[in-house]
Design brief:
The structure is a homodimer.
Chain A lengths: L11 H17 L9 E5 L5 E5 L2 E5 L4 E7 L3 H8 L2 E8 L4 E13 L4 H5 L3 H4 L11 E2 L14 E16 L3 E7 L7 E3 L2
Antiparallel strand pairs in A: 1-2, 1-5, 3-4, 4-8, 5-6, 6-8, 8-9, 9-10
Chain lengths: ~190, ~190
């Protein structure tokens, strides 16, 4: 009989803490799996869209995650209409899948001026591309980077639920909801 | 001046071929990034959901991708209502993000009997869990694996569009649509 090296997966409270510890690691370590979640949104036509994003902040007490984006990107348009989003992280080292449901507030302008002032110059290049992200261009490099505070948006994701799957000697799956204080229940995997 | 080692990213036709080559590698190599796409679907409430799946087949000529799942899983219920899905792959070695929009056919029963006969015993454990995937259970391991051909479903994804982003010395983004024969256009990244 082997001992499961990831004993945190066998206890709801430890599992919940582990998920947040790994989210916070994603903010601070560019090589951590949680650094690059996949964000899924829904278009006006009711179809899903998914893309890689960068995790910029994680607050376990508030249950919030921050992403930065160009205010003119399709994901912002989609979130204005349907503010519910999904975030997905597969952590291969921990054999851990984290699925997050969140309600997203779109912050821009004066509300994010302080955050913008702390965005490094190199990163500012990502906000203000001309033409706007996703617009057709006639050649691959027919665009310019024009850093612009007015194009900077923060997506503040208020986590509503976590669906967590650990692939161990036996698989374990749990769901945690904000509505019940994150106490958690086990699900069949 | 440095030469871009990934010259395929500078030509629409080569880029499209590269995407499919990497999808096919995902089917044949369990360590390839395309082995584990993220599948996004939409719930009856209009909210997105995302989870890791395993890529089981890729047909470049037909423009189809196959996934296997439990017929009783939430993703099947979601796809019955909204057959449009998104698949997302981040290939860190190639600095390549592939975003796929697909219309999904759900195949089960006699239509997949031949495929089921070729699923190895170990993999069959994934289809037929009791209770069904996602059902609440009172303890983490209160479930049984009962391989069952009636729980086996193939999600045949008919690719409608590809949105491809290459992060190189300069970023390049392209979109390819089935409707225009996959000829492709460049987009601002």
């Amino acid at each position: 009989m082997t001992t499961d090296p990831q004993q945190w997966a066998a206890d709801l409270s430890l599992l919940h803490a582990q998920v947040w510890a790994r989210l916070i690691r994603g903010v601070n370590d560019r090589h951590a799996p949680a650094r690059h979640p996949t964000l899924a949104t829904v278009t006006a036509d009711g179809a899903p869209q998914a893309r890689t994003v960068v995790l910029r902040a994680a607050d376990a007490a508030a249950g919030t995650l921050d992403l930065h984006t160009d205010l003119r990107s399709a994901k912002v348009t989609e979130l204005m209409r349907q503010p519910l989003a999904a975030l997905h992280i597969w952590d291969s080292g921990a054999h851990l899948q984290t699925r997050i449901t969140a309600r997203v507030d779109i912050l821009s302008g004066p509300a994010v001026a302080d955050l913008w002032s702390r965005v490094p110059d190199a990163s500012r290049q990502s906000y203000g591309t001309q033409p706007a992200p996703g617009q057709p261009i006639s050649a691959a490099l027919d665009y310019e980077k024009r850093p612009d505070a007015n194009s900077f948006a923060v997506l503040r994701c208020h986590v509503q639920a976590l669906d967590v799957l650990h692939l161990g000697p036996s698989h374990r799956r749990a769901r945690f909801d904000r509505a019940d204080g994150w106490s958690g229940i086990w699900l069949a995997p």
